[in-house]
């Protein structure tokens, strides 16, 4: 029964000190997902840092510097389960200089829990994270107005922040945005309904996470199977990877790209278990009826539904590099699920103004944590779908050839 539960990934994001780590600690604590030795460690830390009560944020702030400074630097992942679902939580850092970590932690999320401090309201970094959530096409947004205890649990303050956020996010591409007033520190509206906010008639955060429908978010139309590993022996050729989109079935006619060779799926399996079909995010091994020359990075699709094949790419990126700005004409390595190619930045169209969402054409330069629209020219053909169609096939990273550092993450338009 446990293995049949749905796996739900969500990320907690927002500005520094808005209570993301505390919220996760509260979720784990109130859902009975903390082991005895973990809680004992929290008790020890309470004495070490001279705190009056257990700091639940320490459950996710695993680095020594994080605990000393009270901030999140790395992306912390936590796993827990309820009778309804299994969860993977990524606690993303709020500081501006760690925006790249936030992009990494949120890239595979089914939902984003955005925390806003009720006393401070909507700030620039929370806007930045909201924009990135939109660019990443995170399907569901849960805005938690946290620290309601600091504003006397007043409905008026909650509604003010709600209106501010709705006014800002209306310019972005969100289809499902929900609002919950909470106090992560005290547990109000986290797992149990708060008696201090009787005016709120919505659901708790845990109920929302457990019951949110997300199966329809997957791309079930565009069949995409990037080849990650090839095993060939006397018995045949085995093509392993993770389904990036669509549903593949035994007996389907398929097209191998970039070779443009057609064949038929004769077997879908994983280890010793055979499957009739494979669905998105499922890791499987496929066998084809024909012996086609295939290499890692090739793609299996449908003959009548092919991805775009081009050397020209139009994309939005978040620039990561602290030491170098983005430069037109520089060589980078373009790396995605099904492609690796040398590329150049052919043009920078604009930088996105975080405050106004306007396109800044007189941007000067693109530096760390800037979001920009660029055009890329690759030296070899790239197989891709737009990010809005398929998040897996439309995402990529840029790698500096000289340092081997990842300098940008991008979403193909």
Number of domains: 3
CATH topology of the largest domain: Rossmann fold
Distance between the ends: 40 Å
* Radius of gyration, whole Å: 23 Å
Give a quick precis of the structure.
The protein has 413 residues and is an alpha+beta fold.
3D architecture notes:
- A hairpin with a 6-residue loop joins strand 19 and strand 20.
- This protein is α+β, with helices and mostly antiparallel strands and 413 residues long.
- The protein has helices at residues 20-30, 36-48, 64-69, 99-106, 124-135, 155-169, 205-211, and strands spanning 6-13, 76-81, 85-91, 111-117, 140-146, 177-181, 225-226, 229-233, 236-242, 248-249, 253-257, 261-270, 273-275, 277-278, 283-288, 299-301, 308-319, 331-336, 340-352, 359-360, 371-384, 395-400, 406-412.
- Residues 63-73 have low confidence and may be disordered.
- The chain folds into three domains: 2-217, 3-Layer(aba) Sandwich (Rossmann fold); 225-301, Elongation Factor Tu (Ef-tu), domain 3; 308-412, Elongation Factor Tu (Ef-tu), domain 3, CATH 2.40.30.
């Amino acid at each position: 029964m446990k293995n049949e539960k749905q796996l739900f990934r969500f990320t907690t994001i927002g500005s520094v000190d808005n209570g993301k780590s505390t919220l996760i600690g509260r979720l784990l604590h109130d859902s009975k997902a903390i082991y005895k030795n973990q809680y004992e460690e929290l008790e020890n830390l309470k004495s070490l840092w001279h705190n009056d009560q257990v700091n639940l944020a320490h459950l996710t702030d695993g680095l020594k510097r994080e605990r000393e400074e009270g901030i999140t630097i790395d992306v912390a992942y936590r796993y827990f389960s309820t009778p309804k679902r299994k969860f993977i939580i990524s606690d993303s850092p709020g500081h501006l200089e760690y925006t790249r970590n936030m992009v990494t932690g949120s890239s595979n999320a089914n939902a984003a829990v955005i925390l806003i401090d009720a006393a401070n309201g909507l700030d620039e970094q929370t806007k930045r994270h909201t924009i990135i959530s939109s660019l990443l096409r995170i399907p569901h947004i849960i805005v938690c107005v946290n620290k309601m205890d600091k504003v006397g649990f007043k409905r008026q303050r909650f509604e003010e922040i709600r209106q501010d956020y709705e006014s800002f996010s209306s310019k972005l591409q969100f289809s499902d945005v929900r609002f919950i007033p909470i106090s992560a520190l005290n547990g109000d509206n986290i797992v149990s309904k708060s008696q201090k906010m009787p005016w709120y008639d919505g659901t708790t955060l845990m109920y929302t996470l457990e019951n949110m429908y997300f199966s329809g978010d997957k791309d079930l139309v565009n069949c995409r199977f990037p080849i990650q590993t090839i095993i060939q022996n006397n018995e045949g050729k085995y093509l392993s990877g993770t389904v990036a989109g669509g549903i593949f079935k035994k007996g389907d006619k398929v097209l191998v790209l970039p070779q443009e060779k057609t064949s038929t799926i004769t077997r879908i399996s994983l280890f010793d278990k055979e499957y009739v079909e494979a669905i998105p995010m499922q890791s499987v091994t496929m066998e084809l009826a024909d012996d086609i020359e295939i290499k890692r990075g090739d793609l299996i699709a449908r003959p009548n539904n092919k991805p775009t094949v081009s050397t020209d790419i139009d994309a939005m990126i978040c620039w990561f590099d602290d030491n170098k700005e983005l430069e037109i004409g520089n060589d980078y390595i373009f790396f995605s699920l099904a492609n690796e190619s040398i590329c150049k930045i052919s043009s920078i169209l604009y930088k996105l103004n975080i405050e106004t969402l306007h396109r800044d054409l007189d941007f000067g330069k693109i530096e760390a944590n800037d979001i920009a629209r660029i055009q890329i020219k690759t030296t070899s053909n790239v197989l891709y779908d737009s990010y809005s169609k398929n998040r897996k096939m439309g995402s990529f990273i840029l790698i500096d050839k000289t340092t081997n550092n990842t300098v940008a993450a991008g979403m193909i338009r």
